[in-house]
Each structure stands twice: as structure tokens, then as C-alpha cells.
Amino acid sequence: MASKGLTPMSEDFSAWYNELVYRADLADLSPVRGSMVIRPYGYALWENIQSTLDGMFKASGHENLYFPMLIPVSYFEREKQHVEGFSPELAVVTHAGGKELEEPLAIRPTSETIIGELYSKWIQSYRDLPLLYNQWCNVMRWELRTRPFLRTTEFLWQEGHTAHAGAEEALEEAFRMVNIYAEFARDHAAIPVVVGEKTEGERFAGALRTFAIEGLMRDARALQCGTSHYMGENFARAFDITFSDENNELRYVHTTSWGVSTRLIGAVIMAHGDDQGLILPPRLAPIQVVVVPIFRGDEPEVSGQVLDEAQRVAQELSAAGVRVKVDTREGLSPGWKFNDWEQKGVPLRIELGPRDLEAGQVVLVERIERQKAQLDRSGVAAAVPGHLEEFHRALHARAEEFRDAHTFSADDYESFRQRMEQGWVYAVHCGRPECEQKIQQDTKATPRCIPLDGPAGEGSCVRCGEPSAYPRRVIFSRAY
Ligand SMILES: [Zn+2]
Question: Which whole-number Å values give the CA distances from 438 to 90, 426, 434, 441, 466, in the listed order?
């Protein structure tokens, strides 16, 4: 309900986030601690994310399939780093059908292991390669500290798993997918992410190289929005995925995996929201335009005309491909409705009252600056798609401006520590995990990525003075 004000983000970002998730009807608490119920408004947002990405995956040659959620626990022990990375978070089924199971079954935290087992069956020859598969599913990781959309024990995601004949081809795939994520973030979520590679200490368990997109949230902390991993032969060796090449020699495949999750909803909330509530990027928004008819209580006939006209506006917009809703709720003031839809982040609002009806116009209000414009009634359907495009550009520009204003470079550890309060910091880094741990103890910041583009990284580490490990400066930030 929009009646009582939302805690301002500047006052308490975390309270703002939690209140907003529930008030905007995105999610609700579950009786099981750490998991959440995704409500229709939140799920519609996810469906738009999902269908957009799914189209991008298919356009780049991938097919969907589905693996079961139960995986024998022993599978996790086959790849050493993988088991170390995931066993603390495994949820395990030990009893079923009233009996103790002979072999305990893990609820998938990710599916490399079971997929590896099947790929070893499906791949025999170089003619079977590449395998370019993806699945949309739920996964479970037993997290102690949870937060809706950002960290929950069960979440929805996609996991792509591909197998290739050689290293070069597999690396290309890992790059392709992280770039598809970046394109999605920029062109659909209006989030200007940075594409980069993870340092050794931040790599996925079992990967040789991990690439990621990182976004800056409005509390100046980073959020990893998607990852893509090159596994080399690690999983192929653990699961014996071999093929005979053109010369009839047996070789291991090279694999990749890549994923994004319902965390992207958290990214959209935190990259764009303001004290009033959500601001949704129009290409993902479940409702792009809300039409609020303004009734005159003492003149039911006029109110009926206004409502009819509001419905006609909505039909025209819908025919123009716009996702639109008319707020026909009775007994609520227009002001209350305006607040409610602003809190839900609907990009555009059309107000239509008796005077507008007479004047042959509507009032258009955009969500970012809440600027009003009058539109000629007959031109609404032709004008609104352009306004939505403009909204997307303005939202992206606003996020980019915010990011740039909170991006710094530091050459000495003192200014590095000070800047860490204010955003993310480019610094020269030695790449040693133990140095990263010290930095984290001192500043709560972690290396987010080594950007693919960015300032050159020659010189000595900002903390320890050892030589730089990378051609570029590393982005450090506090992160979710
Ligand atoms: Zn260092």
C-alpha cells in the first residue's frame, strides 16, 4: 500500500529495498526461512527478462533442455574445487518414501556434474560438437544470510552448458555469452554494466576463467549481474567427456557454463529506483503505461464517458504493441493511484479527466522526473512508443551518469580506502588471493573484475607493492 511513505534510500538503503520489494508486490515472505514467493507483478518482470534472454540464446545457436533437480551427492566429489566450492551450501535429501536413501541426493546448486555425466554419453565424435544447451530451472544454495532476489536459498535462473572441441572455441563461447548478458543489461534493463574477468580468488569453483558483468547500484555498491565460465578440461576429465577427433584420436572436450538469475530483478530495483519506489525499464516493465481515469463523483454520466475513453486509449495502445493497464479501481483518489503506480515503477502514466475529454487531450507523466506533457488525444497511440524509447534512453543515461560520478582511480592505499566509501575504484593489483583478503578486511571491498576495456594496469599493487598481474586496472568495490 502506498499510504505510508517508503523509507528514503538515502536514509537506509537496505530498509528501502526490503520495504519496496513487498510494497510493490514483487515478492512475499515464505514460511520457509530464506526462500521467497514471487508474486505476479514480480513474476511478470521475470518472464520478460526470461523471454528476451531466451530469444537471444536461441538466436546465437543454443537449444533448451531440462535436467532433473536431484543429483547423487557423490557426483560433487568428482571435481575437487567444485565440491569445495559448493558443499557448504548443499541441501541434501536423505529420506524419501518413508525410508533412508541408499545414496543421498543433492538438490542442484548448479548442474555441471549431472550434465557432465550425460555429456560423456552423448558426445563420441567431433561430429557431435559443439553441444550448445541451456536450461531454465530453479536451484538451491543453503545461504545463511538472505535477501529477496539478491540471495535466497532457492532461486530461478538459466544455466547454459556447452562443450567444444578446443580451447579457443570454448573461450570464444564464454566471451560471446558474457557479451550477450552485457547487451541485455544495456539494451533491455538500461543498466550500463562493465564486462570483465574475475581474479583468481573470485573465480567460479572449477573454472579456469570467469567473466562477469558488474553493475553499480544506487548505494554505490556493485552487483554481479551475470557470469560466464571457461572450464577448460576440468569437468571433461572429472566426467570423462571425450571425443575422437578427425584423426581418430581421443581428446577431452572443453566446456563452458554461464548463468543469470532472478538476481537481475534485484539489479533493476537497485540500479534505477528512487525514494518514491521502483523505476522499471520500459522494455522489461510488466505494465509500460497505466491509464488513470479521473472521475467526478457527482456526475456519474461524465465519469462513465471518461472511463469509456480511457478504455479506448488502452485498446489503441495495446494495438500499437504497448503493455497497458487502466486503473478502474473505485473508491481510491487519483492521487493515491498516482503514488501506487509510481511506487510500482510504471514508466508512463496517462491521466484522463472530464476537462481533458472536452479539450481532446490527455496528460502524460513520465516516472523519472515526473514531468507532465499534454498529448493530443488522437495522436496518443502514435506518440507513446517513442516516449517509451526516450524513457529507456533517459534511464540508461541516468544510470551511466551515476556510475561515472561514483567511479574513481586510486594510486595509494590511503585514497583507495577513502574512495571505497563512495563507489568503485580502479587500482593496480598483484592478483594474489591473500592480498585480496587483506583488502577485504580493511575496506569490505572485493575485486569485482578486470575490465576488458579500461585504464592500463602497469605498476605495483595499490596495497602490497608487488608487480601488477594484469594488463588493466582492477575494479574494487563493496558488493552484494
Ligand atoms: Zn597486492
Answer: 28, 17, 6, 5, 14
- Ligand 1 geometric centre to CA of 230 (Å): 25
Distance (Å, whole) CA 87 – CA 83:
5
The CA 474 to ligand 1 mean position distance, Å, reads: 11
Percentage of the chain modeled with pLDDT above 90: 88
Query: Pick from 136, 134, 165, 168: which is nearest to 61 by CA?
Result: 134
pLDDT at 4: 66
How far is 56 from 186, CA to CA, in rounded Å?
A: 14
228 CA to centre of ligand 1 in angstroms: 25
Q: Which domains can be identified in the chain, with CATH numbers?
A: 13-272 (3.30.930.10), 289-387 (3.40.50.800), 407-477 (3.30.110.30)
Distance 70 CA to ligand 1 centre (A): 41
Q: How far is the CA of 443 from the centre of ligand 1 (A)?
A: 14
CA 454 – ligand 1 centroid, Å: 19
What is the pTM (predicted TM-score) of this model? 0.95
pLDDT tens digits along 316-350: 999 999 999 999 998 899 999 999 999 999 999 99
pLDDT in tens, 384-420: 999 999 999 999 999 999 999 999 999 999 999 999 9
Give CA–CA dist 132/326, Å, rounded: 43
Q: Which chain residues have CB less than 5 Å from ligand 1, an ion?
A: 430, 435, 461, 463-464
